[in-house]
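Input structure tokens:
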């Protein structure tokens, strides 16, 4: 059987635990204050992404290597295929020549069949989105 002192101690501990549980529980309202320019930035970001050349398009890479080879490829490509865009980029350690901006894989496949006649190493790729 418990002694009166032990009963008081157990009762005190129980009351303390109950009080702590209700005393530390929190309820309230969270309010977020943000600058109105943040919404403008999000709208601008959406606009940029929508017009971005990397958004859901296919490209064809016709060259990867040194600068002189890239320049030569650009010149040759522009002479033969005026209807497609041609761009040279530098990605360490190579210059890459990429052409077109095709909406579908089928459209890119058709162009690749033509381009491969002059640039046999050409291949289709889908650039990763920039964030």
């Amino acid at each position: 059987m418990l002694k009166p002192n032990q009963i008081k101690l157990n009762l005190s501990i129980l009351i303390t635990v109950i009080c702590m549980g209700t005393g530390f529980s929190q309820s309230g309202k969270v309010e977020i204050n943000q600058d109105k320019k943040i919404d403008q930035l999000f709208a601008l970001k959406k606009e940029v992404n929508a017009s971005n050349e990397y958004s859901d398009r296919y490209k064809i890479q016709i060259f990867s290597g040194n600068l002189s080879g890239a320049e030569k490829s650009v010149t040759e490509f522009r002479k033969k295929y005026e209807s497609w865009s041609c761009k040279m980029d530098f990605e360490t350690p190579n210059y890459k020549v990429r052409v077109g901006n095709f909406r579908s894989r089928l459209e890119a496949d058709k162009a690749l069949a033509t381009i491969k006649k002059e640039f046999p190493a050409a291949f289709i790729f889908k650039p990763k989105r920039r964030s």
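The helical segments are 4-24, 36-51, 67-80, 105-115. The mean pLDDT is 84.
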